[in-house]
TrEMBL record:
Chain coiled-coil ranges: none
EC assignment: 3.6.-.-
Enzyme class: hydrolase
Residue stretches making up the Nudix hydrolase domain: 40-170
Protein name as catalogued: NUDIX hydrolase
Keywords: Hydrolase
Family the UniProt entry places it in: Belongs to the Nudix hydrolase family.
Keyword Transcription listed: no
Length: 185
């Protein structure tokens, strides 16, 4: 097993949201793949946000590709010059109005879909969040802020009220740091 060699690469489409690249690749056994399409995206950040009252802050919004409404944790892309922590603090504040003076807990970095995408998602836990600001949404965003007790999230996942994978993953990662979690001694 070995890495593929890129013989040729050309952009088919470029936009501020992402690029579509067509690669011609040679596998270690010599076989050539003429049309391997790669979606280039900026890295994404997200956070499970817990309020001082032990509630999870979620955003409800319509997602056109999914043709439905979804409950998700706040998320967004990293802007040029931002650290991951700066990006998620900005996104949480813009989407929800919530902020926290606490340090963020880094829960992990995960490839979104390494078969077709170049980006990763960096997941954080924000504790003791307070709503101090109004939303500052982009022109195409319609986001409803909702809060739920932390202990209700598991049931919401099981009942398919929360189906967005990054939200489910973040919840399960955050459970380790939740005060009610049982840690091995």
């Amino acid at each position: 097993m070995g890495k593929w060699k890129v013989l040729n690469s050309e952009y088919k489409y470029q936009s501020p949201f992402g690029n579509l690249r067509r690669d011609t690749c040679q596998m270690p056994d010599g076989k050539v793949i003429e049309d391997y399409y790669v979606n280039e995206y900026a890295d994404w950040v997200n956070a499970i946000v817990l309020t001082e009252e032990d509630e999870v802050v979620l955003v409800g919004q319509y997602r056109h590709p999914g043709n439905d409404f979804y409950l998700e944790i706040p998320a967004g892309k990293v802007e040029e010059g931002e650290s991951y922590e700066q990006a998620i603090r900005r996104e949480v504040c813009e989407e929800t109005g919530y902020v926290s003076e606490q340090g963020l807990i880094h829960l992990g970095e995960f490839m979104v879909n390494p078969a077709t995408q170049t980006n990763k998602v960096i997941t954080f836990l924000m504790l003791d969040a307070k709503r101090l600001y109004e939303q500052e949404l982009d022109e195409a965003e319609v986001v409803e802020v909702k809060v739920f007790p932390f202990d209700s999230i598991r049931e919401m996942i099981l009942n398919k009220e929360i189906t967005q994978l990054f939200t489910v993953t973040a919840y399960h990662l955050a459970k380790e740091f939740h005060p009610s979690s049982e840690r091995p001694s």
